[in-house]
Specification:
Largest sheet: 6 strands, parallel
Strand content: 5-15%
CATH class of the largest domain: Alpha Beta
Oligomer: single chain
Shape: flat
CATH architecture of the largest domain: 3-Layer(aba) Sandwich
Strand order of the largest sheet: 5-4-3-6-7-8
CATH superfamily of the largest domain: NAD(P)-binding Rossmann-like Domain
CATH topology of the largest domain: Rossmann fold
Radius of gyration: 36 Å
Structural class: alpha/beta
Number of strands: 18
Number of domains: 5
């Protein structure tokens, strides 16, 4: 679909309706002229003819079947005969025009043009920040559903028209402009708002690496200042994206490989990462740590190659089951299907400690792990889930790790978009060591439990903390610490159920786990974790001067203009009463 071909549906309709409109005009013209030429008689029986105005007036309401009346005088037989001819001519003309119009409305090209024009108008009229989501598969749906409660808009491009038609059924509170088109076309991206002043980023989530690469290149050339988050499932595509300066490249298989490596050598750090990146409100259950020893891997595709590389880097031997091993006679390879017991037994399933089912078929993966568990009940199981629709089946089987690529990509994208400080904090976790991560995990879970917390970022600027910024801008003003603002604005004797994990200064310096006495400065960015209610309470403190005044000094200042005026009046009368008492005492 080329948007340039459908710049105006009005002119497209005019081209299709050209012949019917000319036919109608000719019928009206001939009818009017003929009616002025046919002689008639007036009320006195004198010969007369209709004027052009009266003839046009009569043909207009007669040909459109509004009514019938002979004006300004009763018609002669000749005039009535001509009117009969005009009536049948107009019926034929209107039938021809209406038939052509109905055919136009059913024409797929015209309907595409109308849909394209409506989509473009919706995008042009957006006046709030939005993200351009390319691909509305499982990952795209997860991201749109997560952005919606945060008040962030999305514009969707999806090549499958069936998925676009189902978007309205997903219960999103905000209207999501969506277009069934190929996101690889630059004109489609521009129409969808790539160069729109309110566009805040591009998210390429299609299941085609070449399409994601094309989107990344278009974003880099047409909107170089816009962040692009792109999915890539091959190393070659990821490298190509990186060469064009793509900021965020997400490979779900590589990302999980890193998670598995982290859980092997630093289990506490992995549990902390899992707890911080979990869906708020869900309980994160600590699972047993991956054991060391020989593993069996079934399916040597893209994910399988990443898993083999990860395990071998950790010094863990792997036996691979695949239909076509690349090297005959290699002890690591077993030809066959992992869903059958013979291949698993040939790989030594009873002696290994773990199994990875990583084919691109969910039913096959479940068959593999069920058979493997029957042969070795103590196996550590890593199970790949390809489709979110099969969630009920995977819930019924208790695996140690369930790999869902769509969830990995969605969580990574949301972390980058909503909590940009989370990525550097997680990097610090991996570098601090197992003992440090274990201590922090114990502290956080002891305070908040194992329910995944709400993780968010806050910045001391005019948009996110106007009240606090005004206070910090006062020359020689009182210092404000983290502990001061992390009090409940409804009861300052209580601390908010949250903790600051990471502090980034305006001068690019950072502080890990800042203590409550750390002073706050203008431009500071905070990474916080805690209860959802704490986020709303902290936002109130940062935005409302009265709430901030109460939190810092305990002064309860009335809010609103009316209450402020009453408070001033009360203070004036109280002051006047005190002055009278002083004067009376002096007089005595």
């Amino acid at each position: 679909m080329n948007p340039a071909a459908y710049e105006s549906t009005f002119f497209l309709a005019l081209r299709r309706m050209r012949a019917p409109l000319i036919t109608i005009i000719l019928i009206y013209a001939v009818s009017v002229v003929g009616l002025t030429l046919v002689p008639g008689v007036d009320a006195e029986g004198q010969p007369t003819r209709l004027s052009l105005f009266h003839a046009f007036y009569f043909i207009s309401y007669t040909a459109t079947t509004i009514g019938f009346g002979e004006i300004p005088y009763a018609f002669s037989d000749g005039q009535r005969l001509w009117v009969i001819v005009c009536i049948y001519l107009s019926v034929i003309g209107w039938a021809y025009s209406i038939g052509t119009l109905l055919a136009l409305l059913q024409d797929q090209n015209f309907r595409n043009a109308v849909r394209l024009q409506r989509f473009g108008q919706k995008v042009r009229h957006l006046r709030e920040p939005f993200y351009l989501v390319c691909g509305y598969g499982e990952t795209g749906q997860l991201i749109c559903r997560a952005l919606d409660p945060l008040g962030l808009r999305a514009v969707v491009i999806e090549i499958d028209e069936g998925r676009v038609s189902q978007l309205d059924l997903h219960g999103l509170s905000a209207d999501v402009p969506a277009l069934a088109a190929d996101a690889r076309q630059p004109e489609v991206l521009k129409l969808a708002g790539l160069t729109h002043r309110c566009c805040r980023g591009v998210i390429a989530l299609t299941n085609d690496d070449n399409a994601n690469l094309a989107i990344a290149i278009a974003a880099r050339l047409l909107a170089p200042g816009l962040p692009a988050l792109c999915r890539a499932e091959t190393v070659e595509t990821a490298n190509n994206m990186a060469s064009f300066g793509t900021r965020h490249i997400i490979n779900p298989f590589d990302k999980f490989g890193r998670y598995l490596a982290l859980s092997l050598h630093a289990p506490a750090a992995y549990h902390l990462l899992e707890w911080l990146t979990g869906v708020p409100g869900t309980v994160v259950e600590p699972h047993r740590d991956p054991p060391r020893g020989r593993w069996v891997l079934c399916g040597h595709g893209r994910f399988g190659k990443v898993m083999v590389s990860t395990l071998e880097e950790m010094g863990i031997p792997v036996t691979i089951i695949d239909h076509a091993p690349p090297v005959e006679g290699d002890e690591r390879w077993v030809r066959g299907d992992g869903a059958g017991a013979p291949a698993l037994l040939a790989a030594g399933i009873r002696e290994v400690v773990g199994v990875v089912a990583c084919t691109n078929d969910d039913v096959n993966n479940l068959s593999i792990v069920v058979t493997a568990r029957e042969l070795n009940p103590n196996l550590f199981v890593v199970l790949r889930q390809n489709l979110q629709a099969n969630q009920a089946l995977f819930d019924a089987f208790e695996s140690d790790f369930t790999v869902v690529p769509s969830q990995i990509v969605a969580r990574e994208c949301l972390a980058i978009l909503t909590t940009p400080l989370l990525a550097p904090f997680l990097s610090e976790i991996k570098q601090r060591g197992e003992a440090w991560a274990s201590t922090l995990l114990d502290q956080l879970t002891e305070r908040f439990g194992w329910e995944a917390p709400t993780v968010w970022s806050a910045r001391v600027d005019a948009d996110q903390a106007p009240a606090l910024l005004r206070l910090l801008s006062v020359p020689a003003g009182p210092p404000v610490t983290l502990g001061d603002v992390l009090l409940d604005p409804h009861d300052r004797a209580q601390e908010l159920e949250c903790r600051v994990l990471y502090l980034a200064r305006a001068d690019d310096s950072t502080v890990m786990l800042p203590h409550r006495h750390t002073p706050i400065q203008a431009g500071d960015r905070l990474l916080l974790a805690g209860r959802g209610a704490a986020r709303g309470a902290l936002d109130l403190t940062l935005h409302n001067e009265n709430a901030l005044d109460y939190v810092l000094w305990g002064r309860e200042i009335p809010g609103g203009w009316v209450w402020e005026q009453l408070a001033k009046l009360h203070a004036r009368w109280s002051g006047a009463g005190a002055d009278r008492q002083v004067r009376d005492s002096q007089a005595r």
